[in-house]
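Crash report, auto-generated. Payload:
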Amino acid sequence: MSEDLTRLSAVRLARAVRDGEASAEDVVRAHLRRIEDKDPQIKAFLTLTADAALSQARAVDEKRRRGATLGALAGVPVAIKDNIQVAGVETTCASRMLKGHVAAYDATCVARLKAADAVLLGKTNLDEFAMGSSTENSAFGRTANPWDLSRVPGGSSGGSAAAVAARMAPLALGSDTGGSIRQPAAFCGVVGLKPTYGRVSRYGLVAFASSLDQVGPFAGTVEDAALAFSVVAGHDPMDATSARRPAPPARIPVPADLKGVRVGLPREYFVEGLDPEVERAIRSAVETLKSLGATIKEVGLPHTKHAISTYYIIAPSEASANLARFDGVRYGFVDRGAKTLEEVYEFTRGAGFGPEVKRRIMLGTYALSSGYYDAYYAKAQRARTLIARDFRDAFAEVDLIAGPTAPTAAFRFGEKTDDPVAMYLSDVFTIPSNLAGNASLSVPCGLTAGGLPLGLQLIADAFQEERLLAVAGAFEAARACLFWPGESPGNPSK
Amino acid sequence: MTKYEMVVGLEVHCQLATRTKLFCGCGTDGYGETPNSRICPVCTAQPGSLPVLNAKAVELAFRAALALECRLNPVSVFARKNYFYPDLPKAYQISQYDKPFSEHGRLRLSEGGKTVGITRIHLEEDAGKLLHDLGALKIDGSLVDLNRAGVPLIEIVSEPDIRTGDEAHAYLAALKEVLQYVGASRCDMEKGEMRCDANVSVRPEGAQRFGTRAEIKNLNSFKNVKDAIDHEFHRQVAVVESGGRVVQETRLWDAAKGETRSMRSKEDAHDYRYFPDPDLPPLVADESLVARLKAEMPELPAARRARLTAQLGLTAYDAEVLTGDRALADFFETAAAAAPKGAAKTVANLLSTEMLARLNAESLPPSQAPIAPEHLGRLAGLVVAGTLSSKGAKDVFARMWQTRKDPVELVSELGLAQVSDDGALREWVRQAVASNPKAAADLKGGKDAAIGSLVGAVMKLSGGKANPAAVRGLIKEAVQS
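Recovered output after restart:
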């Protein structure tokens, strides 16, 4: 093939490899070259597994030569957020605590990618233990936004979003606890899907907040996101919270129009604090949905204002227990200067965790403390129920909810690092979907005057990913909104 | 002088008799095996690993609860109990807190005896253990063995109904018996499969209010429990008598010194920050499962003992020995059914002497005895019919153990059938009286005890085959004539 292989969608690449138009090795080499070229500035990857990727690619090519049927992602390179376990590969969670820690097993989503003949390129940067909205909380340096190297890629899955945006990988996996897939997808101008809680196994995803965490794909196109989602989704007996639902189909037909689709605009998502430029882009995106035949209706999600405070009780509480296992006893960092058991814990955790992780462990430990439990944790759980009920009521009236993914476009490095609350507010529109456990995605919907990408968030009821992806696909087709940094928007190369 | 009574509640941890751990597929057979040979990403808390509940453990826990007459809660919740210790890989233990799977049960200590209330039973995972040396090899620091980490336990919390060390002992014995009976736990204390903590307080006799309690840990035998409780009672009484106040604390039993000593006070108590484990959905007591378990519930030992004494005429002692182990009692009932009517007592004798001795000598469970229970029943039949003497029965039993053969077959094979033939017996008696004139004269003169040596002589002449009862009659007849 004479085309630049890094410009092809995952769907197109898998077909090329299956049909013998391109070898998996060629596909992988093209992406490794692109990484070599771009990543020194962007720094999306923490670990590059080039040799393993090439040998996986050659195995796929060999499989094809033998005449065996190739998987849905034959030869497609995938980048993995570094809080997802890949056996034999360092898995750091961007924390000093796990520097040098080699994973003992494959996460279920990783095993499914491998079984589908995907090729793993390496591990991408993130906010330490997925706690953050800019990837600036990484212990191993910051990742730049491919659209503007002075800006953040969003977070916490900033490395995965940047890798896809910079065409270093056609697909990447991230995790979304409060917006960590959708917000960086919006900041980097790519598609990011947060599946319904329980739809993708969490086995092998290093837990941040177990009742909120969900693995999902980043992709250049909606169709690619659907393909990757179909590979990683489905019941897993290793995860007791995994839904007993079959994996969705690999291809979701894009409807010619959206007649009969009812789209709700939550009035609470168009409020002060929303950048006027973002608001204009979202209103324009809604017009596109309308022009496709969708009916638009205002809906209320009255408890949205409590979402952030609810989240910042529940997520840190769960995190305080989830991160307690990093104690220097079995794996990862240990402070060798410790003389007593107390010191092993104190020194190891004191030096191993960064400030944001410590802040959240302290918050959570406090919220769960005897005497405070009812005032904080129990109350937050009740608020969570009300937030979920808001969505249930809204979905009685509409099929989908549309709104901004983030209140602003990508901000500059350092802009919010001194103000945790300002940083937390960048997740104001994404957190409610995690609290309710439903499905949502961010799809590119335009650029700011300054040339930064913006994302339209679509939210569907639990297990309605097919509808969500179909509508997003129709929107994408109508807007010709696949674009790469520094290039004009266009339709994806299929 | 004020008289005091002790108030004791026990918290007993029992390992459920599952093949695999509570939240992963690792074996539970790691006791005494190579350290860390029964581990996986889940029970070593590798980052990203998740627990999945073992359905068999739930079934065994439910069986225990039903046997202890507990109410099964329709929904219960797993909670994380947070604390740091090197033997606890996740730095939290998955347990149950405010919503345990069962509550409100009771256990009768003995026939017609006291009933102790069961407050609650909950499911939880065990921790690993720390090694401070490797046999004779001293090591710098400590090592962690996680073979035990994640092994399923139930914690059974009693009401503060126990008033003496002996009652505590009886409670534990009854608990062990019931749990073994329903197959919930093997309760092997030596392997740590049954562990006990005791909450002890004292109050003046007749008082309604409880005194301040101390929790005593490290009680690894029934005797330790009894001794520790008795010791603690006297210690607390002495504190109160001397005008002091008992403080709420955790104390450790030192079996070697025979005393308890303070481990930590209430002020040092952990805040475990319990909260529902988001990795595990609530445990629902499935109605069809509960119905099946109720239907499968075996007759419990107390009821069985009552039936065996009433229906088969066993002594309370025999019934106790036989029902001490469910497999042994099953063996007995099958054997008794194969024996003629009225032979149950003989079956019980053979079991509690010959068979238990053999089983103990070879460390075999009753289920692995190389003897069919029906054969034992038939052996008892031969004894009752007079075909075999008790000595003969002993010999046949030994052969049965070796050959697995039917005793009827063995008796004819060995020519062991007891001789009751009048002619043969009279001839042996004549010879015995003739060669023991002094004994014969003594017997005739009214010394009844003298008959013993004459019977012995006949048995010797007959090679043990003479029927002793018949021989006695014939000897008396012979000396009188």
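Post-recovery validation: Chain B has a mean pLDDT of 89.
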